[in-house]
Design brief:
Largest interface: A-B, 34 and 30 residues
Shape of chain A: elongated
Oligomer: homotrimer
Largest sheet of chain A: 5 strands, antiparallel
Distance between the termini of chain A: 5 Å
Strand content of chain A: 35-45%
Structural class of chain A: alpha+beta
Chain lengths: 138, 138, 138
């Protein structure tokens, strides 16, 4: 069994941002030389997400509106977590979107459906944060 | 390390439908000959879900009502994604329900709790769509 | 390839409770002797969750308030599932929080970000319930 590990770093100018990281994840898989196995890709921070969906800008606007409805950023004082912080909403938004994805590796490629793309979802940006890619297989 | 891959195909007559796929997934595991490992089961489409919950029809009605409350199908024009599409709600519903499950394989069986059943959740049906099963182990 | 399996048992006095299980999961990993691989940790019950977030009591109060808003416990009769049960809300709350986490194992340790902690989320407690830890690797 082989394994491979790499961190990807992100720093967004916006508080919230969705970034298609499929090319970077494919690159990490390529470096690993693993042909058959499983790839884990997770946010290492609890106010960010890694998820799979469509790379369509209208949908990304819909995610923003929808997450603000389910877990609004403001007023900050509605959340107990926001005594010293202002990012409670980011913890909740990331919970909806998910921490991680596990993707099959087949023939040395990410075994994704036709529209599946891997995204980093930042919900409390403007600082450096990491995504972990870990691959095991042969 | 062994690995095994299979696609399961679904085509529902309804826009939304929950299908218990535990028997099919167990069949794939049996074909693989893998006794100890991890099994990934994911929707290959971004308007469908694979999740684990109870096979109880009342609960399934509750999921339908609840998802329609959290991310209503109509009016279609409330979503930016619905310029050429009408399925933005399906992307959001699938996000709540999740893309994938990872299940332990122990002694050649799905290592599930007493009421755990694996479901395909279709939120934009009436066309052929796929689920991927990938198993690694020994 | 090595594999290791262990069940963790919980019985809460409260209906809902979040428990930091990171030390127990680390202990299971240590027992396994596995240095590189993937660790699956999942609730074996469909009214409970395993998730990763911050161990901060204010945030945990926010989760309680938020989940009660998204999927209120009462009135019980609002849910079809509650003919013989009263826990439909727990199925929905667990769906939001997720069934499982997959964590990378690197150098014999849980490969977590600085604030990532693993939680058992109980949404229908007062009885014995299980969490499964399954690790594969080398």
């Amino acid at each position: 069994m082989k394994s491979h590990r790499k961190e990807l770093w992100f720093e967004t100018r916006e508080r919230r941002k969705l970034i298609n990281i499929t090319p970077q994840v494919e690159q990490v898989l390529s470096e690993s030389g693993i042909k058959e196995g499983l790839l884990l890709c997770n946010a290492m921070h609890i106010t960010a997400s890694v998820f799979i969906n469509d790379d369509e800008s209208g949908l990304h606007q819909d995610f923003e509106t929808w997450l603000e409805k389910l877990a609004p950023e403001k007023p900050y004082e509605q959340y107990h977590h926001n005594g010293y912080e202002d990012n409670a909403d980011a913890h909740l938004k990331r919970t909806v979107m998910g921490r991680e994805v596990v993707v099959a590796v087949t023939g040395g490629r990410l075994d994704l459906g036709p529209w599946e793309q891997i995204f980093y979802g930042e919900f409390d940006g403007k600082r450096k944060k990491r995504v972990l890619v870990k691959i095991i297989g042969e």
